[in-house]
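Sequence, please.
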């Protein structure tokens, strides 16, 4: 591995997210900037700068050809570019007076519907799950969750959510309810479903519960098992 930090505001700054668009451009999310590289990371240019402290742009997703979405905090809940990062607009303001809300994931779904989820800190309010049916210009709340960490889809295109301490749930769009698929206390923060419906979960480990590592289901709906061989730790100790 070699460092490719040329053009970043600080040579050793934190980068919380990376994504690549259909043209091969790479986007990186920092504390107050979104950077773009057109030459495989050899050089970076800031293409969006938050005028007030936004916290990390911890999620960047590219989809539907030229659309780039970045998730941050407060007034910069989601910023959008429809031209490969040349121009940007704030499309979701989640700022509050007494607490902080931040985007934890964004996913481009089937049927040109985009989903996003948020978490809340400094308050007991629940996080929210949003959907956009106009390519990210406007967003509607479709559900609430104590702490949604990740979004994904099963092979049928149904929305999945990994929730901190509450496992994996699937969204029933007909009645607007979340169906528990895995409720063992794990905290999925990455969801991967393959074409044959095999589902993998990357789970966080916390001192109070453990349950970290990789979980696997052959059909995404039945039982899940840990696949932690080679990590040299048990599920309760995995980080």
């Amino acid at each position: 591995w070699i460092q490719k930090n040329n053009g970043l505001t600080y040579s050793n700054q934190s980068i919380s997210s990376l994504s690549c668009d259909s043209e091969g451009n790479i986007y990186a999310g920092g504390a107050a900037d979104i950077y773009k590289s057109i030459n495989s990371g050899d050089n970076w240019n800031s293409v969006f700068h938050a005028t007030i402290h936004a916290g990390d742009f911890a999620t960047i997703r590219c989809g539907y050809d030229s659309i780039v979405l970045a998730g941050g905090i407060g007034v910069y809940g989601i910023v959008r570019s429809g031209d490969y990062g040349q121009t940007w607009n704030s499309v979701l303001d989640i700022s509050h007076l007494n607490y902080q809300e931040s985007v934890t994931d964004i996913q481009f779904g089937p049927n040109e519907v985009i989903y996003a989820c948020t978490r809340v800190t400094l308050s007991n309010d629940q996080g929210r799950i949003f959907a956009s049916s106009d390519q990210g210009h406007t967003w509607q709340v479709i559900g609430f969750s104590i702490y949604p960490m990740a979004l994904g889809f099963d092979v049928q295109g149904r929305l999945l959510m990994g929730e901190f301490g509450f496992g994996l749930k699937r969204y029933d769009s007909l009645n607007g309810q979340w169906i528990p698929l895995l409720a063992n206390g794990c905290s999925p923060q990455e969801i991967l479903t393959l074409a044959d419906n095999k589902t993998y979960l990357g789970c966080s480990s916390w001192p109070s519960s453990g349950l970290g590592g990789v979980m696997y289901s052959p059909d995404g709906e039945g039982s899940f098992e840990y696949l932690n061989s080679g990590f040299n730790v048990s599920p309760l100790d995995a980080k």
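The radius of gyration is 18 Å.
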